[in-house]
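Entry 12.
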Amino acid sequence: MTSLSLLVLFTGCATSPPKPLLTAGQRQAFAEVIREAQAEGAESEPPEAARLLREAKSEFEYGQRLPKYPERARGILAKAQSDAEAALRMARRRHQEQAAAAQLDRHDLATASAITP
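Predicted 3D structure (tokens):
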């Protein structure tokens, strides 16, 4: 190989765009989970969900800033997605428990009203 061929080969590698850390679909999926978690109240209750949601947002921002370490960044971004989904599940469970408790309270109240003369 001539030195010109090597120069062209190395220049071609250096100028090719790096593989993106996330696809547009992955970014959108993360944003959607965050929106759903916030709508379910995960930013405040339960406390574990709030902590996980904060960590997920932080991990997501940090992971995007590691283009020199793509495998590490992808691992951090996957953890961010997992944490956001866990926060959403916790918030939904809390919401369902509160709804069930309210339904039980209404039932108890109706039963007590029917019994008292």
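Annotation: Residues 70-115 form the longest helix (46 residues). Helices lie at 3-15, 24-39, 47-64, 70-115.
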